[in-house]
Amino acid sequence: MTTWITICDTCKQDDWDAEKGLPTDGEVLAELIEAKAEGDVKTRRVSCLMGCTRSCNVAIQGAGKLNYTLGQFTADAASAEGIVEYAKMHAESATGQVPFRQWPQAIKGHFVTRHPPIPADD
Questions:
Q1: Are 33 and 58 in contact (CB under 8 A)?
Q2: Does domain 3-115 have CATH number 3.10.110?
């Protein structure tokens, strides 16, 4: 089943300088995640997940599964790799729950929220 990584592309770390005209930290992280995602892991960008004090933010989501918001990432390859690796495990899980012992080190300490699946309309 597909797991989506929703990436905030407007996230900026405290040291980001608008005058330099560089991409935001969220854009950099999005590019790194997009380059690694494949198969049942899809990506999309949104402008603001409203976690500005914890940038860079992503949401790991799947239909009928637990969904998670993670933040305070550095826009680097190690963070992107850990996020995608966790999303692959989320995709393989029937409930979206992944045992802590299986979490990549790069995502430990980055969980902000967990959301239960949306109830079925019936």
A1: yes
A2: no
